[in-house]
Structures are given as C-alpha cells and as structure tokens.
Predict the 3D structure of the following.
Amino acid sequence: MFLRLAWRNIWRNKRRTIITMASVVFAVLLAILLNSIKEGVLYKLQENVVTFYTGAVQIHQNGYWEDQRLDNSFAQSDSLFELAKAHPDVNAVVPRLETFVLAASEKHTRGCMVVGIDPQTEPLVTSLDQKIVQGSYLENNDQGILLSEGLAEYLKLGVNDTVVLLGQGYHGVSATGKYAIRGLIKFASPELNKRMAYLPMHSAQNLFGAENRFTALVLDLTSVVKAEKVEEELALTLEGQYEVMNWKTLLPELNQVLEGERAENVIFLMVLYLLISFGIFGTILMMIVERQYEFGILVAIGMRKLKLSRMVIFENVMISVIGAIIGTVLSVPVVGYFYRYPIRITGKLEEAYRNFGFEPIFYFSIEPRIFYSQTIVVLSIALILSIYPLIKIMNIKPVESMRQ
Amino acid sequence: MDSHNHENCVIHTEDLTKIYDGGAFPVRAVNDVHLHIEKGEFTTLVGPSGSGKTTLLNLIGGLDQPTQGKVWVKDVDISTLSKSQLIDFRLHNIGFVFQAYNLIPVLTARENIEFVMLLQKRSKAERKKRVFQLLREIGMEDKINHRPAQLSGGQQQRVAVARALASKPQFVLADEPTANLDSKTAKNLLDTMVKLNEEEHITFIFSTHDQRVMDRARRVITLVDGAIASDELKEEQHIIIG
C-alpha cells in the first residue's frame, strides 16, 4: 500500500508533477542530443586523425619512439605479423620504414619524411590511394615514388619528373637514390602536405640498406576506441620484446584536444543539470510545505519517520526517473535519425572544414552509455535532493506540524 | 498499589505541567494536572479557548513532552519514552480523531482505515475483517471505495473514528471532533461513538466546546488556565442513544 500511496501522492498535484517531469524530460533529451553529437563528432575526428597516418596502434622496436632512428628498426618477423593480425579487433597490419632525408630537384632541396610502405596493404589503414591528386598510385614492384603536393610544388617537380633523396641509412650507411614521381598526394594538413614522400617497401629498404627491416607495424582496428585494450593485450603477449603504443601516446596533442572538448561538454551538462536540480528542488520544497500538516498526522497516528521519509524520497525519485526515462525514450528516434542521416555542413563552413582536413559532417553517436548515463545522473540528483525532505521529516514535531 | 497500576486505569497523570517558553512571559498551558481515567469512560475536557484542553490531550497522547510530571498509559510512563518509542507506542495504544478529519486524501475510506493496521504489520485477512467490521459499525459499508473528497464532513469524521479504532487502541483522543459538523451530522457521529463506548467499552476522551458533546459525556472535566477547575461525573441515565 505504501507504493500505491506514494504513486497516488505523485499525481495529487498533476500540473506540478507534469511540469517537473517535463523539465526533466527536456533536459535529458537535450543532454542526450548534445552528448550524442559531441561524442559522434569527437569519435569521427579521432578516427579521421588516427587513420590519417598513425593508425590506432603501432608496434616498434623497444626505444624507437624515444629515438626515431633506423638503427632502432626491427627485423621483419612473420610471427610478429601473424600474432598482431590474429587479434580479433585488428583489421589490418601494415609495415612502415620511416626516416628523414633531403629531397632534391635540380635547384631546390627540402627535408622530408620518406616512408617505405607496402603499396597493397597501406590503403587499408590510411586510404593513401584515395589521396592521389595527380598521376597514379604505386604498384607492388614499382621503382617510383609518391610526393606530397606541397613538397613537389616547392621542388618545382611534377609527375614523371625525378627526385633525388639523400640521407643516412641503417648503421650510418649513406643513402642516395633517384626516383621517378608516379603521383602526387594531397594532405589536408599543410604540415604533412609539404614534407611527405612514399616509396614501395623494397625501394626504401634498398635505399637505406635496411633489408627486411621495419620501423613500425601499424594496426588498423575494428574501432579506434579499442586501441587501449588491444595495446594492453598485445603488450602482454609480446612480453616486452617490442614497444606497443596506442594513438593516445602517438598523438598526445589530439588526445588533449579530445579530453578538453569532453571536459567542456561536462561543464555545459553540469549547468543544465543544475537548472533541473532547481526545478526538482522547487517541487520538493512546495510539497514539503503543503504536506507538513499531513506529515504531522501520519507521525501522530504511528508512522515511523524513516518510513515516511522513504515514501517521500520514492515519490521524488519516481518523478525524476519517469521524466528521465521519457526523455531517453524520446531521444532514441531523434538520435537514430541523425545517426542514419548525419547533419551535413554546407557553404563556407564546409570549405573551412575541408581545408582543415575534416569531413564537414556532424555525426551522432549511439553509444548506449550516452543514454543510460542520463538516467543515472537524474537519479543521483533526485537522491541528493532527497536529503532535504529526509532532514525535514526526521525533525518533524507532530504538534507543531499539525498547528500549521 | 499506585492508582495507575489499578487494573481498570487507562490513563494516569501526576503533577502534569507544560510550560511554553514565551521569552519574558512563559505560558503555563497545563498546570499541575492530576488525572485518572478508567477503561470505558466517555470523558470530555471542556473550557474556554486557551485553557489547555488540546495541550493536555497532546501530552496524554504522547504527541508533546511535559515540562514536568508524568503520564502513565496502563503501566507505561510515556514521558520517559524516546521519540521513536513514542511513535510505536501511539501506533499500538492510542487512537486519534482530529477536528479537520485528516484522512489521507489519496486513499479510499477502506485504505485509510487499513493504513494503521498496515503500520502494525497485521495480516491481510485480519485487516480485511477489521475494516469491514468497522465500516459496518460506522454505517459506511457503501462508501468503501470513496476517497475523502467524495465524502461529506460527517462521513469523513466517521471514517476518522474507524481509523482511530482500527489499531485496537487503549483509548481514543478526539480533539474537537464535531467542530466542523452541522448538528445532524454531529449527532450521528456522537451516536456512533457512544454506541462503540457502550457496546465495546472503548475509552473516549474529548476536548470540546460543543455543548452536544458535553451533554452526551459521562464525565466532564473543566479546565481553566491549564488547571482542573471541576471534574463532574454524570448519572448513567443522562446518556441518550440515537
């Protein structure tokens, strides 16, 4: 009967209950939409940046990340390759051999990063073949090179011209070679656009005297959010023979940006929930004042204060949780719609986004956490606010309450 | 043997005093009251406004703490009980009827009566039996599922009486129970209470200004300035039923 009594009490003042619930419904709906778009955009940003070059996880020779020299490369190992590929969350494993060289044309030179790649598998991680703006992508046994558009422009070179690379190879050997430019790649990032060159792996290994050696294995995962888990599990399996790093370590600046964005979101949500709290607290306050007399009667006829408090807390929690559930239910089709049909940015903003290398699309996330966390937050607010009626009821003096 | 240990004694007070702190002018609402009420009495406390009737009822009912003196209900000195013990004591020993009926507005007549028994953790079968018995006694079997707002003032007060009796208390305290009722409804309510008193020997103690209640009481205690000014026991034949 106590549950029945609490339920009926909720609907004693229908208008007030509906207004309170409505405020919770709209706040939860807004919070879910905001969280969904924020997480969706951040996830996409993270995915874009990670699959741009670094990949979600990399495996190196121990100490390579601190001292990125060819001398810290590792010998090609089929077992390592197979082990990484066997992980259920790994989509693809691609090898890299990277170092800095001088790229020269007839009249110009510029420092650049040359990356030895497997032309067949590299697109699985970075979609490099999609970034060709002139010429063609590399073939498997190709002797040519791909240059970033900015670098080619600086060197005043074009497709089918020859570029000379000068540098230091494995164990200090001199590395010199000339390569025909097969194609030009455009990177959205101006920094990358002016200093990248790609060679087929066998050419790069020849150039640097690093036969069968790689500086990194780059892993593409089923989802970038699994990077930490995959890193931990591979590190455990490899027992310290290699260093395994996820994108958060490889790209600390990106991680900081994402964390900053999330913190900003939390502050915004806190303000939103503070507003809801005032709404719920207003209802509690009114209810306590209105029912002071009734509480006095209930205690007078023998209802224990703790039982009475439990009933009143249940009423408050029910109002808040019902509001949160309705808000969550209403948000599902809205988020579902935008998940399927993300918001496309048009006009100048689209151009600006593209210039920065970002897709001009606002994606929505449908991660379950976004939905249930709102109910948990509202429930927590209701429970915290229930401290007030609890204190009031525990201090009730029936005679004084009934005198009011 | 002390008077309060007497088998038939339901309420016994000694030197009962309640002083409200009014700053420079403390108010002596109940002043050194010695009272002895036996089982089956139908007693009224009368007196002008501010004479201490309600305060005395509150002290007897364990709703307020005396400044001085003691209150025994049967053989329990309730002035020594803690607040939570007092709540339990009231639940099992005292029935209350208030001037403003004070039924729980969201519960039906049946649920209002059943509520106290639920607090007492009585079985469902026992609750059901007692509710129907009480509804029959107050003549409201046909209003069982009506909420207070659907009942007249008199009907609400009768349900309040049934609620007060539901816990099978030692006695019922009724604070101005007829104050908000018209004469016909007040008479019906009093008939019900007198009948319960006569047939089931339930002890009733009223505070009232209402002459109709005083006329039906067997004992009239008059309070003046918090003290008992007179204590009059009437003849049995003065009580008229129906």
